[in-house]
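Help needed: design a sequence for this.
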């Protein structure tokens, strides 16, 4: 019972903390620096020795500030948890793939979550703190079926802290269930920053360390370490029991930060957002793009007094080989008809060479950041949708594209809302191959036949559904898209009677 009351109070204090945190937020980065401090060359080299450089994507991209010996772009990810900040940053932060990321995490069992990232240094298990040494870290116990509720919910978050309530430390079922303890290295973060980065580096500092922030920030202020910091994200934890840090001292620290012009911007990786995400990700859809942001288009306007119009599009899947075959077949067709290719953010990131080549000739639209299993995109909550779409647009920016069209994998109010926020025009093809409504392809009516019989069946189905023109889409993941492509284009070009147009023309009234 007592624990429940403590938890309820904690929740209220946490909520107040969030509100206070928000009101302290500032939307632009603050320059704390004093430009006259010299470079610490040996320290740059020491850090660079730790950096893996196997990132094939990055190595193809301009190096930006990463030139050897020059200032670097660095993200300090303190309280890294399950790599949620690394993921959010790499997916959505402008230029996020150019940053060296140092992640500090005290729970050794979370280390595997960082394995896939390069240009990344993991310090784990390490607790960031106000001094060097060793310390006992309390971390969450492994899941078991009747582990019990945390704040009324089943919960599994990994991580833990060095400042914890007695009952969560002593009982694997209380509070945050911090039943595992280990003595781990503790790092004086202020000193580490000064020794491992230079004031000339562009340093983004994210601090979410379950109460350890007070000692760290006080020491950073005392030692002038904010001269090394360009942007400060994080969270305060007002209710965690930090010895010698009564509420008055915590408030005083916050007002000192405010008086020094040091603003903490809210970073909430668990919500897949940071306070200035929308500001940094303002839409750059060309102002003269036809259509209205967030509206859904599946038909083409008719040319005045002329024939019905048809726009050909391709939904490019993650299979590069299949996509390449289909697009090259389309490119080789003598009609030179305009085509729009919809691609996932991940496809752009993995095959920038292909996208750049295709963009010379074709309109590039977007799909989601990455494919979801069939039917699962529309079920996602708004936070996941936002990260996915911001990521998709960001990947396009990195290859110099400003897409206006989005072909979603399913429509819902949330999908429309997220598209509108990015000023994207939603495209729902009039008909698609393979068809998703009406006569579907079955073993009996289609798949039992060999290609010579399939080809006309597939084209007939498409013909019947686009008798009024509109938007026709081929899915590159279906091998028959390639098989029928040249025959289909012959039909469209020679016999359909449609005016074959770009999506731009299609949407213009
Ligand atoms: C921390 O613990 C390690 C391993 O037990 C030990 O070698 C080291 O001396 C300790 N460091 C401090 C500062 O106590
Ligand atoms: C778009 O095309 C579909 C199918 O051809 C048709 O049912 C619908 O009325 C059209 N919508 C508009 C706005 O013209």
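Sure. Designed sequence:
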């Amino acid at each position: 019972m007592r624990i429940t009351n403590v938890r309820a109070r904690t929740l209220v204090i946490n909520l107040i903390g969030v509100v206070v945190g928000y009101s302290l937020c500032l939307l632009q980065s603050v320059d704390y620096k004093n430009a006259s401090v010299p470079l610490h060359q040996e320290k740059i080299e020491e850090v660079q020795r730790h950096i893996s450089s196997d990132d094939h994507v990055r190595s193809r991209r301009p190096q930006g500030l990463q030139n050897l010996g020059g200032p670097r772009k660095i993200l300090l990810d303190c309280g890294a948890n399950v790599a949620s900040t690394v993921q959010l940053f790499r997916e959505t932060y402008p230029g996020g793939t150019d940053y060296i990321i140092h992640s500090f995490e005290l729970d050794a069992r979370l280390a595997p979550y960082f394995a896939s990232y390069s240009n990344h240094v993991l310090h784990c298990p390490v607790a960031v703190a106000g001094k060097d040494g060793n310390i006992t870290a309390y971390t969450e116990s492994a899941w078991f079926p009747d582990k019990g509720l945390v704040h009324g919910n089943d919960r599994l978050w990994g991580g833990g802290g060095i400042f914890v309530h007695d009952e969560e430390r002593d009982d694997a079922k209380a509070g945050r269930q911090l039943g595992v303890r280990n003595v781990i290295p503790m790092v004086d973060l202020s000193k580490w920053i000064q020794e491992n980065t230079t004031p000339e580096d562009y340093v983004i500092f994210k601090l979410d360390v379950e109460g350890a922030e007070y000692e760290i920030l006080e020491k950073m202020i005392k030692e002038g370490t904010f001269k090394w910091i360009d942007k400060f994200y994080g969270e305060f934890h007002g209710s965690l029991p930090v010895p010698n840090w009564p509420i008055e001292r915590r408030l005083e620290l916050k007002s000192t930060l405010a008086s020094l012009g040091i603003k903490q911007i809210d970073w909430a990786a668990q919500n897949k957002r940071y306070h200035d995400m929308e500001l940094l990700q303002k839409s750059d859809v060309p102002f003269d793009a036809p259509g209205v942001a967030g509206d859904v288009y599946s038909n083409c306007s008719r040319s005045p007094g002329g024939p019905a119009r048809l726009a050909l599009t391709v939904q490019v899947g993650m299979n590069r080989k299949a996509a390449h075959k289909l697009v090259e077949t389309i490119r080789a067709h003598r009609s030179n008809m305009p085509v729009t290719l919809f691609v996932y953010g991940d496809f752009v990131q993995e095959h920038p060479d292909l996208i750049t080549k295709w963009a010379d000739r074709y309109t590039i639209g977007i799909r989601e950041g990455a494919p979801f299993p069939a039917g699962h995109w529309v079920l996602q909550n708004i936070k996941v949708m936002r990260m996915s779409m911001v990521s998709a647009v960001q990947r396009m920016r990195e290859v110099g594209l400003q897409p206006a069209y989005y072909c979603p994998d399913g429509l819902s109010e949330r999908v429309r809302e997220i598209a509108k926020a990015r000023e994207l025009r939603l495209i729902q093809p009039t008909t698609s191959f393979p068809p998703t409504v009406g006569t579907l392809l079955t073993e009996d009516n289609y798949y039992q036949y060999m290609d010579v019989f399939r080809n006309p069946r597939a084209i007939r189905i498409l013909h019947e559904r686009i008798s009024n023109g509109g938007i026709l889409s081929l899915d590159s993941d279906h091998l028959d898209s390639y098989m029928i492509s040249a025959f289909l284009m012959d039909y469209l070009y020679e016999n359909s009677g449609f005016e074959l147009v770009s999506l731009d023309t299609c949407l213009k009234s």
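The pocket of 2-acetamido-2-deoxy-beta-D-glucopyranose (ligand 1) is lined by residues 133-134 (CB under 6 Å).
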